[in-house]
Design a protein that fits this description.
5-stranded antiparallel β-sheet, single chain, alpha+beta, TATA-Binding Protein, 5 strands
Length: about 160
């Protein structure tokens, strides 16, 4: 049995592609931090989203849910020692309509959400970038516009540069 040979250029390209994978995955989630109490950061985000027409439709409190499972989870319970784990699930009906008109498959992105954690006096907000998933879609530009707007809303709410 003979295995195919790989040229030096081919090997370099393969190594470069493999080394880029973690960076690409990391770029799919935006992270913001602010030295704010969790409840203050949460309320600022909630109000900022609502003020811009993104209606908060669900507020999962993963921290409370997991705390109720602490015994079952045992030593794996909250190993990062986060004092808060919450999300804001939100939607803008007008923008949802635009997405549906551009590419109905992009409705898989609706509703959007941000997650908030807190540890050691620092609140962190995470936002999965919908533009990454929409790449190559006829609605990619519309989704990128929404992503940029959410990015700005979060930065302004938390006063992050």
């Amino acid at each position: 049995m003979r295995f195919p040979t790989l040229s030096l250029h081919g090997l370099a390209a393969l190594l470069l592609a493999c080394s880029a994978l973690p960076a690409l995955a990391g770029d799919a989630i935006l992270r913001y931090t602010a030295k704010l109490p969790a409840d203050v950061a949460y309320q600022k985000l909630y109000q900022a989203l609502e003020d811009k027409g993104y209606y908060v439709i669900f507020e999962p409190n993963m921290g409370r849910t997991l705390a109720g499972m602490a015994e079952r989870l045992g030593k794996d319970y909250n190993r990062n020692q986060l004092s808060t784990m919450r999300s804001l699930v939100f939607c803008n009906p007008v923008l949802t309509n635009r997405i549906a008109n551009a590419d109905p498959a992009l409705l898989a992105l609706c509703p959007l959400h941000v997650s908030l954690t807190h540890k050691d006096g620092v609140s962190s907000v995470f936002f999965a970038r919908p533009g990454v998933l929409a790449a190559g879609s006829p609605g990619a530009a519309e989704v990128q516009s929404i992503e940029s707007e959410i990015d700005q809303i979060i930065r302004e709410a938390l006063r992050v540069q």
